[in-house]
Amino acid sequence: MMVSVERTEEYTTDIPVEPQDKVVQVAADWPSRGLVEFQHVVLAYRAGLPNALDGVSFTVYPGEKVGVVGRTGSGKSTLFLALFRMLELKAGRILLDGVDSRSRLSSACRSRLAIIPQDPFLFSGSIRENLDPQGKRTDAELHEVLEQCHLRDAVTRMGGLDSELGERGKSLSVGQRQLVCLARALLTQAKVLCIDEATASVDQQTEQLLQQTIRQRFADKTVLTIAHRLNTVLDSDRVLVMQAGRVAELGSPSSLRQQDGSLFQRLLRSGQL
C-alpha cells in the first residue's frame, strides 16, 4: 500500500509545467503560408549539457521542400523538437509566418503543424479514432484520405472505419501504420509537414507509396524531411546539412553534390545520411 502511495506522489509532485508565455491573437488559419524561420536558435536538453542546437539560423519558404541531413547527433531531430516546442529555447526564436511560436500556447502551436514520425504512433482504438481523435470529420472525408494513402482496401478488409487497431496499431504492418500517420497529417490540412525518417523501417514499395502521396497531396505545403535514403534527399528543393548542432551547408542537392569537399558530398559517398 505504501509503495502505491509513494508512486502516486512521484507522478503528481514536482512535475515541470510548460511555460505559459503571453499569448497574442493570430488568424484562425495561422500559419496560412508555411514560412518557417529559425533565428539564432540555441537549445540544450538540460542544464549543464552542451548545446544540441548552437546558433541555428535558416529560412524555409512557403511550399518549399527541404531535406535535413547529417550524421547521428548532428541536431537533425532536435530541429523538430524545437519547432514543436517539445523543448524550450535557451536563445533565439522560431517564427511561423512571421509570428514567434513562443507567443502561442504550446498545444496550439503543435496543433497547427503535422508530423510523420520515424516510429508511427497509433493508440488502442478504432481506425476512425486514430485518424480523427476529435470526431470532426465525416465518413466521406475519412474514406477519401484513406484512398489517397492507399489504405482504403486494407481498411475495408478489416471491417471499416470502426474496426479496432489493437495496442499501438498491431493489426497493421509497420508500413500501413506509417500510411495511417500520413492520412492523419493530411486531415490536419497543416501548411507545414515534418517527416522524421518516416521511410527508414518500411519496404521499398511502401516508401514509394509514401513519397508519391507526399508529392501529390503536399505539393503546395512546406515540407521538412529528415532524410534516410538518397532518393528522398535528391527530390528536395534544398538540403540543410547539420553538423555539431549547427548549419554546415544549405543549398540545392545538385549544387552541394558538385561542390568539391562539401560535407554533403562526403555524406553521399559514405552513405551516412
Automatic annotation (TrEMBL):
Pfam families per UniProt: ABC_tran
Superkingdom of origin: Eukaryota
Keywords linked to the UniProt accession: ATP-binding, Membrane, Nucleotide-binding, Transmembrane, Transmembrane helix, Transport
Domain ABC transporter as annotated: residue spans: 36-269
Gene Ontology terms: cellular component: basolateral plasma membrane
Transmembrane segments: none
Entry keyword annotation includes Methyltransferase: no
InterPro entries found in the cross-reference section: AAA+_ATPase, ABC_transporter-like_ATP-bd, ABC_transporter-like_CS, ABC_transporter_C-like, P-loop_NTPase
SMART domains cross-referenced by the UniProt entry: AAA (SM00382)
Topology class, membrane: Multi-pass membrane protein
PROSITE patterns: ABC_TRANSPORTER_1, ABC_TRANSPORTER_2
Subcellular location as annotated: Membrane
GO molecular function: ABC-type glutathione S-conjugate transporter activity; ABC-type xenobiotic transporter activity; ATP binding; ATP hydrolysis activity
Catalysis performed (reactions): 17beta-estradiol 17-O-(beta-D-glucuronate)(in) + ATP + H2O = 17beta-estradiol 17-O-(beta-D-glucuronate)(out) + ADP + phosphate + H(+); leukotriene C4(in) + ATP + H2O = leukotriene C4(out) + ADP + phosphate + H(+); ATP + H2O + xenobioticSide 1 = ADP + phosphate + xenobioticSide 2; an S-substituted glutathione(in) + ATP + H2O = an S-substituted glutathione(out) + ADP + phosphate + H(+)
Protein name per its UniProtKB record: ABC transporter domain-containing protein
